[in-house]
Structures are given as structure tokens and as C-alpha cells.
Specification:
With 275 residues, this protein is mainly beta. 9% of the residues lie in helices and 62% in strands. The protein is built from one helix and eleven strands. It has a ten-stranded antiparallel beta barrel.
């Protein structure tokens, strides 16, 4: 009987500890934003004279937090720290090919952030079978937008404590880049490139008055971040309708007090149906 009581007390302690941990973590409510680290464009025209295709990209990104917990009171305590964290993102898109040299792309980053791209092939247009010994170059631009919105009540050890709040955060992102490559073999084109990327974050938190707590409002002033990226890649065309493009990137990011240099990368697969 004594053994049973000891085990029950041990289980009770572990169960209560687990509830406390769960309550603590459930009290942290963020308004995270997803920032892609802009990848390089292929220096070749990966498409037809005119028509359409699809692409799918897996790449490095950053999760941005304007505040670690929007439910904290007073609001001033929610503005003390801004966090970023490395993440993996996906970017499916639909391509439209125009005038032998232009590619327009539209899609969603992580199924929530719309983006638009345009690429201009500078030295060569569409070729059914590329020839070794040719130089290629392209100029690319991209813009994207994301909004994160959440609301709830401040949570504590005893559960919801009746402090309603709502918040939103926004991200505007854009890049311009140049890629240059030399077609060493018929289906392989190694290349190098550079991207300049600039993004802007802003948002607001509204905490409703409850009981003796007066609540309040707070707006994050627009903050501009910058990323400079250099990288190397390979344009591999295993068949006339498929392109596979791995690349390795080195980037430098500055945003608020964050000043980070890191290595990332991406893998893009393009499919161009026969048209």
C-alpha cells in the first residue's frame, strides 16, 4: 500500500508539472512572419518561346518575430525583443513564358504568402537543345507580401485570465539579382550570382481593457531589413521538359539589432510541358 501511495504521489507530481509546462507554453502567442532568403535565378531561359510551366522550390528562410508574446501586459514588455530563426520553406509557382526571353511567375510561399517574379534572359533565349561553350546571363526581380493575424486571451497557470487581445504583423519583401553562367556541357550550366533583398516589417497589438487592467494599443513602426546574397548553382536539364537547379548561398542579413551571416541554399525543379 505504501508503494502504491508513493507511486501515486510521484505520478501526481509529474502530471501537475506537465500541466504547468503546457500552461506556460500555451501562454506564448506570437505573430510570426516568414521571410524567404531569395535564391538565384538560372542564367538560362528555362521555358518555351511562349507558353506555361510549373516550378517547385525548397529553400532557406527566416521566421521573424516582432514580439515573443502579443498577450503580455503591459504592452511595453512585448516590445523588448525581436527574434529570427532559420527555417525551411517551400515556394510552388506557375510560370508564363513570353517573347522567348521573359518568364513571369506567380505562387505562394508556404501556402500563405503570395509572390510575383520576373526574369529576363539577357544573352540567349529559348533553345530546344543547348550548345556547349555558350555564356548565359539573366536579371530577376521578385516581390512578396504576408500578413499574420491572431487574437485570444492572455493565458496563465489557471487558464484564460480574461485579458482579450488582438494583433497583426505585415511583411513586404523584394529582391533584384543577376546571374551569369557558362554552359560547359550540353545539359549542364554552372553559374554564379548576386541578390540584393530588402524587406519591411510593421504591425500592431490591441489589448482590450478587462477589470482593473486598462489595456492599450501599440504599433510597430516600419523597420527595413536588408540581405546581400552571393551564391553558386547548377542548371541541369535531364530532358527537354525538366530543369533541376541546386544552389548554395552565402548571405548577410541586417534587421533591428540582428546582424547575421549564414549559409543557405535551395533546390528548384521546373517542368515545361510540350506545347
Amino acid at each position: 500500500m505504501d508503494v502504491f501511495i508513493k507511486k501515486f504521489r510521484k505520478f501526481k507530481f509529474q502530471f501537475i508539472s506537465a500541466l504547468l509546462c503546457l500552461s506556460f507554453f500555451s501562454g506564448c502567442t506570437t505573430l510570426d512572419l516568414t521571410l524567404p532568403i531569395a535564391d538565384l535565378e538560372s542564367p538560362q531561359h528555362q521555358g518555351r518561346l511562349t507558353g506555361f510551366g510549373v516550378e517547385y522550390t525548397g529553400a532557406s528562410g527566416q521566421s521573424i518575430q516582432l514580439t515573443p508574446d502579443a498577450s503580455l501586459r503591459p504592452i511595453a514588455s512585448a516590445t523588448a525583443k525581436h527574434n529570427i530563426e532559420n527555417i525551411f520553406i517551400t515556394k510552388p509557382g506557375i510560370n508564363v513564358y513570353v517573347l522567348n526571353r521573359l518568364t513571369f511567375t506567380a505562387g505562394l510561399i508556404e501556402s500563405k504568402s503570395p509572390f510575383l517574379k520576373m526574369k529576363v534572359s539577357l544573352l540567349s533565349g529559348y533553345r530546344e537543345d543547348g550548345e556547349a561553350g555558350r555564356w548565359h546571363a539573366s536579371l530577376g526581380t521578385e516581390v512578396s507580401y504576408q500578413r499574420a493575424e491572431k487574437s485570444g486571451s492572455q493565458n496563465g497557470i489557471g487558464g484564460a485570465s480574461g485579458f482579450p487581445w488582438s494583433g497583426k504583423s505585415d511583411l513586404l519583401n523584394g529582391k533584384v539579382g543577376l546571374s551569369i553562367g557558362y554552359q560547359v556541357w550540353k545539359r549542364f550550366t554552372p553559374f554564379i550570382g548576386y541578390n540584393y533583398q530588402q524587406f519591411q516589417t510593421y504591425g500592431s497589438i490591441n489589448q482590450t481593457a478587462a477589470g482593473s487592467d486598462p489595456g492599450g494599443q501599440f504599433s510597430y513602426q516600419p523597420e527595413i531589413g536588408r540581405i546581400n546574397t552571393v551564391g553558386i548553382g547548377l542548371d541541369w536539364k535531364p530532358s527537354p521538359t525538366f530543369y533541376i537547379m541546386p544552389q548554395v548561398l552565402y548571405y548577410h542579413l541586417k534587421w533591428y539589432d540582428k546582424d547575421i551571416s549564414d549559409v543557405g541554399g535551395s533546390l528548384k525543379i521546373c517542368f515545361v510541358p510540350v506545347q
